[in-house]
Amino acid sequence: MVVVDWLGLGLGSVAGALVSEGLKILISEAKKVLAFKSVSHELASTMESVLPVIKEIESMQDGMELQDLKDTIDEALLLVEKCSHVEKWNMIMKSKYTRKVEEINRKMLKFCQVQLQILLFRNQLKSMPSMEAIINNHCQIIIEKLDLLSGSPAPALVSKRCSVPKLNNMVLVGLDWPLVELKKKLLDNSVVVVSGPPGCGKTTLVTKLCDDPEIKGEFKKIFYSVVSNTPNFRAIVQNLLQDNGCGAITFDDDSQAETGLRDLLEELTKDGRILLVLDDVWQGSEFLLRKFQIDLPDYKILVTSQFDFTSLWPTYHLVPLKYEYARSLLIQWASPPLHTSPDEYEDLLQKILKRCNGFPLVIEVVGISLKGQALYLWKGQVESWSEGEKILGKPYPTVLECLQPSFDALDPNLKECFLDMGSFLEDQKIRASVIIDMWVELYGKGSSILYMYLEDLASQNLLQLVPLGTNEHEDGFYNDFLVTQHDILRELAICQSEFKENLERKRLNLEILENTFPDWCLNTINASLLSISTDDLFSSKWLEMDCPNVEALVLNLSSSDYALPSFISGMKKLKVLTITNHGFYPARLSNFSCLSSLPNLKRIRLEKVSITLLDIPQLQLSSLKKLSLVMCSFGEVFYDTEDIVVSNALSKLQEIDIDYCYDLDELPYWISEIVSLKTLSITNCNKLSQLPEAIGNLSRLEVLRLCSSMNLSELPEATEGLSNLRFLDISHCLGLRKLPQEIGKLQNLKKISMRKCSGCELPESVTNLENLEVKCDEETGLLWERLKPKMRNLRVQEEEIEHNLNLLQMF
User: What InterPro entries does UniProt report for this protein, alphabetically (predicted)?
Assistant: First the structure.
């Protein structure tokens, strides 16, 4: 019988070494048990994976904290010993001990996923000057993109998923006294709820509180998380752990997440007080708040909600603005129209303020809509409103009623676009390209016009347009813009559709909790825009739904495994498919074949899903025009497309957009066979080291965008075959050492963007490129300045790189 002699291994001296030695013995013994080859080798594999981490903890002299793991190793060794005596033919005993080995393996994994990560994190803190030194993978890539690799990261850059949002530059009105009252209430209680009607400024007040010097001095750390109407406790805890350097941790259940949260908070409060802000908590989420309510003296929770939790926790009731503050805020947003007498202007203000009922959100939207407008438009707006006081007893419909005129005043085209925004999840951060791609197919307009629609909606404060990068959208590229929307404005969009029955609506949102479908799903659905959202408990057991008129399908998922519904194959009018995973890791996508041969499917966008790149050409989508893959995982790249004539299978594909796909180290060969391709964008893919020589086959390619592909060292010489290329973007390709020798043969190349590429060698042939425009930084510009005598029409536009921290909002 194999037993670890912990005393003989030096129990009294170095306890940490005992664990690693015990692991080595367990690994060795597990591999010997042939009758249980599969499960015993899985156990050995688990231990081999964790051994380096255990050794790291040993080096920090904290091995005694691994007592639980030592006990589990003893238990596992006894089990392995028993397994070694089971004969291969004894199926009953094999079944019994297989279950026991699997249970031990699960126990090991659970320890490694939670307690071990916390231990490692704690030990790292002891050897580092500050917690900000620990950054997760996403932020490291962002910092690389901002060219901060050579220095220490600024504290502001480590404001990740749970950071407090930034206030805009507008002067905040009417919040000084509420701030004083709320501050006192928070310092006196462990949990405080800020309650009030939607649109009255709860989030703004709490954000201002978090930025208050006294509060920032009182709390060592402030964490902020939006909860919304579909709370996910595990996801919030995962974000908190990852933001504090614990790595990407997955929980099997809420109980495990509670353990991880407690361990984290106990460790953090050793350094000072902690404040956790939970924004937009809905009625019925009391169970969620109790999970966060951990009895620690230096830990406080601040909650915002439109619902009242007075009977459970101390509550600060935020009321709409008083008249003088509301008036001041309206004047701030909308200056007086020209040729207006003071009395007339004051009369208009009073009527508008009477309608707005003191809601800052409503005042802001209405004020923006009137800013710079003529007097007759102000009068027309006021006259269109019905007379009479609005009762605040039921504030939610009151807010929507107040906002209704802003919707009614929209241009008909903008109305349609605004209504489509209700198809995305509450509090979702949406790439502008997602929305524009959908609108291109639904409304048949060009992307530049549709981007102007977004700007128009943003100018009227009906959504927010947040630039992530250089605030430019060259060649129809809109990935560098995020679109967000206040949940009340989203609700306004949804409410416009509720005048019709579900089955008759043009836009329809279907929310599936666990596996429960509403009864109306059994009938024919006539919507042209269908949004389906599922939670992390959904098992992909779909009803057979009939949706013959759907042209745009938006799927929002949270589960780790997700099978596409088979009824998609019946959507013969489908033009746009957007699949977005809101879970922590890429979701394994299956039943992809249901998309095969859809006659009108023109755009597919997949975000944070796991697929095989060979899946795409196998779909035989002869109408597909654009394929977007964002934060996707591909695993092994397959090249066997001998049975597929790619030029026929994807005969109309014009654009491929691959962004933040971290495991993409090379392109599949079949991409080089898409002769119809005009735009190829591969951005923020750090593992990409080379492009295939066959890329020169893409004779119709006009745009090649490779920005932030940091491991890319050179472009293939075959690039000279891209005879129609007009724009090349190699910005932030920090490892790029040279351009192709014969790049000068690309006579249609008119623009190169190459910021932060000062180490890239320019071949002599570039002087053959006439009328070339180069966008770069000052250092890279020096490479081109020396060529100006030979390139009279060369235009070098040097731009200072501003570190845009909005980029952190993507993750």
Answer: Leu-rich_rpt (IPR001611), NB-ARC (IPR002182), Powdery_mildew-R_dom (IPR008808)
Q: Hey, what's the torsion of the CAs at 597, 630, 777, 756, to 10 degrees?
A: -110
**412-488 under CATH 3.40.462, yes or no:** no
- In degrees and rounded to multiples of 5, residue 352 shows phi and psi of -65, -45
Residue 110's SS3 state is: helix
What distance in Å separates the CA atoms of residue 553 and residue 555, rounded to the nearest whole number?
6
| pTM across the whole model | 0.65
Out of 3.90.320, 2.60.40, 1.10.287, 1.10.8, the CATH code matching 323-408 is 1.10.8
DSSP letters along 36-51, please? GHHHHHHHHHHHHHHH
Which token pair is 804? 């845009």
Q: Which residues are CB-neighbours of 223 under 8 A, at least 6 positions away?
A: 162, 163, 240, 243, 274, 275, 276, 277
Distance from C-alpha of 399 to C-alpha of 266, rounded to nearest angstrom: 42
Domain map (residue ranges) of the chain: 15-113, 145-317, 323-408, 412-488, 500-610
Contact status, residue 463 vs residue 421, Cβ threshold 8 Å: yes
Please give the DSSP secondary-structure letter assigned to residue 5.
-
Cα–Cα distance for residue pair 732/71, rounded to 1 Å: 50
Q: What is the DSSP letter of 547?
A: -
Tell me the mean pLDDT per 10 residues along the chain, length 811. 42 42 66 57 62 59 58 74 68 64 68 58 45 37 38 38 75 86 93 86 91 91 86 88 76 87 91 92 85 92 85 87 89 80 84 82 81 79 55 48 75 92 88 95 93 87 78 70 85 79 84 90 92 91 93 94 94 96 88 91 95 86 94 70 76 94 86 93 89 91 92 89 94 88 93 89 91 90 89 86 50 52
Question: According to the 3-state scheme, what is the secondary structure of 358-424?
Answer: CCHHHHHHHHHHHCCCCHHHHHHHHHHCCCCCCCCCCHHHHHHHHHHHHHHCCCHHHHHHHHHHHHC
Helix 67-83, helix 15-32: angle, nearest 10: 20
How high is the pLDDT of residue 349? 85
Burial label, 322 (beta-carbon count in 10 A; 0-12, 13-18, 19+): exposed
Residues ≥6 apart with Cβ < 8 Å to 505: 497, 526, 527
Rounded Cα distance between 667 and 695, Å, is 10
Cβ neighbours around 632 below 10 Å, total:
24
303 close to 281: Cβ distance less than 8 angstroms? yes
CA end-to-end distance (rounded Å), the chain = 51
